[in-house]
Amino acid sequence: METRHGNTEHDVIVVGSGPGGATVARELSRRGKRVLILERGGNGTLKETIPATVSILSAVSVSDGLLFGRAFTTGGTTAIYLAVAEPPPMDTYRAFGIDLQPAYDEAKAELPLAEVPDSLLRPHSIRIRESAKALGYAWARSPMLVDQSKCKDGYSYEAKWTARSFVHEAVANGATLLNRARVTKVLIEDGRAVGVEYKLGSKKSAEVRRAYGAKVVLAPGGAATPVLLRASGVRNVADRGFYCHPNYMVFGTISGLKGGDGYGGTEGTTIDGDIHVGDGNVSRTFYRMLMLGNRRWLRAFLHSRTIGMGVMITDPVSGELRADGRYYKELTKEDRAKLAKGGEVARKIIEHAGGKDVFTTTPTSAHIGGAIRFGEHIDSNLETEFANLHVCDGSLMPDTRYDHGYGIITPTLTLVCLGKYLTNHLMQRL
To answer: In this structure, are 295 and 309 located in the same domain?
Structure first.
């Protein structure tokens, strides 16, 4: 059913409610603009349990046996992330004509951005740090989006900032949120975006609808946006492929340490510029999901006796987005060599820390990016070749080797800044 009347006409339609989309929706609604947020997932209460996590988790295959995990829920994949939040690579974006410094300064004043103190880490994380430093590795901490005022009793899943909070603010300011709304294409008329077509409801009883707005912002995630842009007629999307940051975990058993949940991913080191090795002492729920996913049934109950590290590498833009919307690439010999080298370092640190029975998990993909390029698919206003159609999610994170502590920039904070930057542009034209 197609409808085009007052309640489907908006100043801005935001597709997706992850950090980029949620920020745009929040900032525009605060300024009195009529905003429609279309979120593919539901709006149930977020909980850090295996059933709750599985219910919102979706996997995208990017290679033979290599999956990228994302979440369909209000707030997007921030519902399942570690809360790591490195600053945006300012020089990279300045080269594209984008100054993110004002947005970053504003974000720092609003968000619970700080390093996590040792009191909120598992003792296993501290042991890893001590071992790494003793072996001569430079060990750096990363800022985290954790509200430490909510951590009076230690680790708290609810203390992690999620983009859901920005969505709630947007709705309180008058924005409309539609859950279970899967956008299938952008509506283009005379070279301009005028709205979107979406399916509302479950797959068996989905109703096809259209919504119209002056501006459309695509922010459904790094995997979804290139597919949508292709379906909408944007040329040469992902024609050079994508990157996916392959990664895996290394675990060992250890005695003499006690401790429950703690924040993982808080610190680490970069080797050769594009191999990151860091703390992998994650929460009990995340750990158990990893063990069950790797068929380590007995290990799933040994969280308190397990010490872990993560290994992640940058990989070049390559592979393809196929006509059926599937991603595919083959890891190169160089990629596999980097993964192996990172694993050797992680094993060395774990064993020096006292870890025994060391094993590795199946590799996964951390991010999908590089498919949308500045100067080709979008300009410095994050606008596509079609007027009024903008992008603000991980798909436009560029393929650049950052000399920035970790070497790999997690996208969350950068996307918040890009959302603020895009809002300022949109406000000049609404």
So the answer is: yes
